[in-house]
Amino acid sequence: IDLKRDGDWTNFAGGATVSGIPATASGRVKIADGKTSVEIASGEATVRGIKAAVAEPSSFAIADGVTSIEKLALNLGSGSATVSGSAGQTLNLTA
């Protein structure tokens, strides 16, 4: 993983294999005022032979135990999905 400070943000790029799933991602993260903001520029993973990739820059934030997804656009094999909403003690997601 490559990390580089850019003002309030930390840029990241890298990859790993977790439980046999190869994955890469790049973007930036900022932690301020009890909120973690993440912007993903690109990313992909292959799960059971199906490639999942970030289709366009996406962002989400984590605060007070709730993850808020502004728009997460994914290419999944030959299809696609967009997820928005929040996930915490309750799920309020639209896919």
Features:
mainly beta, globular, 95 residues, 79% strand, 9-stranded antiparallel β-sheet
Percent helix: under 10%
- Please identify the structural class as seen in this structure: mainly beta
Helical segment tally?
0
Query: What assembly state would you assign to the polypeptide chains in this entry?
Result: single chain
Global Rg:
14 Å
The total beta strand count reads: 9
The percentage of residues in β strands lies in: over 45%
- The succession of helices and strands, N to C, reads EEEEEEEEE
Please mark out the parts with pLDDT under 50 across 5 or more consecutive residues, or reply none.
none
Number of domains: 1
What would the average pLDDT be, to the nearest integer? 94
Describe the structure.
This protein has 95 residues and is mostly beta strands. The protein has one domain. The chain contains no helices and nine strands. It has strands at residues 2-6, 9-18, 21-32, 35-47, 50-54, 58-63, 66-76, 79-87, 91-94. Strands 1, 2, 3, 4, 5, 6, 7, 8 and 9 form a nine-stranded antiparallel sheet that branches. The chain is globular and about 40 Å long. The mean pLDDT is 94.
